UniProtKB/TrEMBL annotation:
Residues 7-93 form the Glyoxalase-like domain. This is Glyoxalase. It comes from Agromyces agglutinans. It comes from the Bacteria. Signal peptide: none annotated.
Length: 203
């Protein structure tokens, strides 16, 4: 089973980005940063999600992100699916903070249960075929959404129709240039149909 070791964010200021992820979300090894000036504009075609246990944790992470320099894209609010909010990190990466629960059952913390990478795909079926061919098993699949089984991986993986993902994030779907993200795994080096680069797991 393919395991995602970490993701690498390409940014003009890697040290500042690494500091943001530590201060806002307590992330160390799961998210790495590297210097890059690759041209990019608009929606980069992916989002990262921190899935937490309760609404108070969503708010705590949301507030910490804003305090560390993030920009609000969607405020924390209830929906039929639970509670969530969306922020954009100073390096441009979009983060969804969410829970399926609607009430707190304990004091709020900044702890999270899962980190999930959602890749926007123009053709979800084609991307799904490539990924299953490279050893990723499908956990859930319905309509324009696919969730893969990644075992004990510290990072989960899903596919979503690009325009639907942008709408979920609260941004325009148009974008071009580099995704400014690399996926580090034991699944080998390759590039998917939408240009997302996979590399050997970081040492």
């Amino acid at each position: 089973m393919t395991t995602i070791d970490s993701i690498t964010i390409e940014t003009a200021e890697p040290e500042a980005s690494a500091r943001f992820y530590r201060d806002a979300f307590g992330l160390e090894n799961q998210v790495r940063t590297v210097e890059s000036d690759a041209p990019t504009s608009g929606f980069r075609g992916f989002t990262l999600s921190l899935v937490v246990a309760q609404p108070g944790n969503v708010q705590a992470l949301f507030d910490a992100a804003l305090a560390a320099g993030a920009t609000q894209l969607k405020p924390v609010e209830k929906s039929m699916w639970g509670v969530g909010g969306v922020v954009q990190a100073p390096d441009g990466a979009i983060w969804n903070l969410a829970t399926s629960q609607k009430k707190d059952t304990a004091p709020a913390t900044r702890e999270f249960e899962h980190l999930v990478l959602l890749l926007g795909a123009e053709d979800v079926s084609a991307s799904k075929k490539l990924y299953t061919g490279r050893g990723l098993a499908v956990g859930k699949s319905f309509g324009s959404y696919v969730d893969f089984e990644t075992g004990q991986s510290p990072i989960g993986l899903g596919l979503y129709k690009r325009r639907a993902l942008a709408k979920q994030a609260g941004v325009d779907a148009e974008g071009s240039g580099s995704h400014r993200i690399r996926i580090n795994s034991d699944g080998g080096a390759f590039t998917d149909p939408d240009g997302f680069v996979w590399e050997p797991a970081a040492s």
